[in-house]
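Thread: "does anyone have the structure for this chain?"

Original post by V.I.:
We have the sequence but no experimental structure in hand. Need at least a predicted one for the grant figures.
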Amino acid sequence: MGMFTKSVKEPHFGDLSAEGQSKIWETTRDIPSLGKGFLVCVWGSKEGPTAAQCNAFGILIEKSEHIHMSAVPDIASYLNSCGVAPPSITLSPKNVWEYLAPCFAEVHSDNQYCAGEGPVGTIAISVGYEIPRDKNHLLQLGIINGKIDQVYSE
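Reply from O.Q.:
Generated one for you, tokens below.
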């Protein structure tokens, strides 16, 4: 941490820190059902995450088990299209997550994220996973209001 590190504590995020006048707040945390050790980046204000961002992240945590289950078909389809899983393996809710490594959760400042946007007034969250067997791809879940908007890759 630098000489001008600032920190805040928010119920859903825990301890967040930022440097100087930065509006980017970071922490590392687990997200139940979605993985452990995510680098969480919040595009907030100089004072910390906004109330809307805290609420959106709280909804993500609250609905993480549902997100975990509802993402499986799209994740399996994506991983199969990349040839990540051996052809002899059928991806299912029980094994699909074994092919992903938690990487980051980015809480955006508004309803837009890299691959889409939610309704005006919502906060978009991108949850990213590395694919250890395929270093050329990074799988992401675009989440709006605690629901998957889309599964995509950059």
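V.I.: this helps a lot. The mean pLDDT is 92.
O.Q.: and The beta strands are 5-10, 14-19, 24-31, 35-43, 101-107, 112-113, 116-117, 124-130, 138-144, 147-153.
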